[in-house]
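Predict the assembly for these four chains.
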Amino acid sequence: MNNKSSHLRKYLEPAQGCVCFTIRKSARAITQLYEEALRPTGLRATQFTLLVATRVMGTVTISNLAKGLVMDRTTLTRNMKPLEKKGFIRILPGREDRREREVTLTLAGQKILSAALPLWKTVQQSVVESLGQNRVTRLMKDLSVTIQLAEAE
Amino acid sequence: MNNKSSHLRKYLEPAQGCVCFTIRKSARAITQLYEEALRPTGLRATQFTLLVATRVMGTVTISNLAKGLVMDRTTLTRNMKPLEKKGFIRILPGREDRREREVTLTLAGQKILSAALPLWKTVQQSVVESLGQNRVTRLMKDLSVTIQLAEAE
DNA sequence: TCATTTTATGTGTATATGCTCCTATTATTA
DNA sequence: TAATAATAGGAGCATATACACATAAAATGA
């Protein structure tokens, strides 16, 4: 046994068994598929998510939206920038509380979202078919528990 | 039913059922836990991963390492920069093939890795305990299948 | 051998991520 | 009510991510 492999055993577990690494790797992998599918719209995976979330939540503040996305508040602010620049969302000062900033989907935002929806549906169905509905359902549940772990902090 | 919610139904599935969104959200959440744990070492989650991978693979080229990590080659090149700057890895031109660049762990890299290992172990065990070993095992398997989906491209 | 192709890598650009420190506004309390 | 605390948000900084394009070197083929 040479010097290189003498203590390798120690590092096989953090290499292969690390929950963080595996989830991050999977995030990179799955993002490839969705971004490939959304490319005709010019939307990134995150951007599609933000538009959908804004659509579902209606007019919403930065912090509330960030909580729902388990995303840092400052990250969300910056992620909104490209969408605002393209005119898909509008950010206005809160009327009741002037500290707040209210995010709203514009008409252009609704249009791009409508265009993106069938593309999302296609790749989503493709992924569900490849993985199998049972595995997807199970995976989503298990990931939800993982997410709650961080939310509990 | 007002105008706002009239077609909301369409967007509940992409909001709650999107595999990409859920995995990415989970990646953000779990990364918080591991980076919090690794903070005393000054290593980010990705950096710890890169050091471990380099340790396990021994001297390795950028492209081969990128394949193993399911990470874009150019992403890996840039991710290596902070580690190189801190002296944890060394990148040298390939001796046989001068196009290649060989990544090696330095002594300082081995030291920081040794220091980080128990911190990783603690947070990993904590996560496994919180999620339950069964769920973790299942989750890792399901995520592996997801990763293979992108590798098949 | 020399032209062509393939391979390994880097750069420019844009977005994604979150921590620390800062300001403005609202809420609380002495 | 005035001082203080709490809250919402932004800016600076560093890292993470990957596509398009460019370069250098090795492999291939006529």
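Chain A has one domain: 10-151. Chain A has a mean pLDDT of 93.
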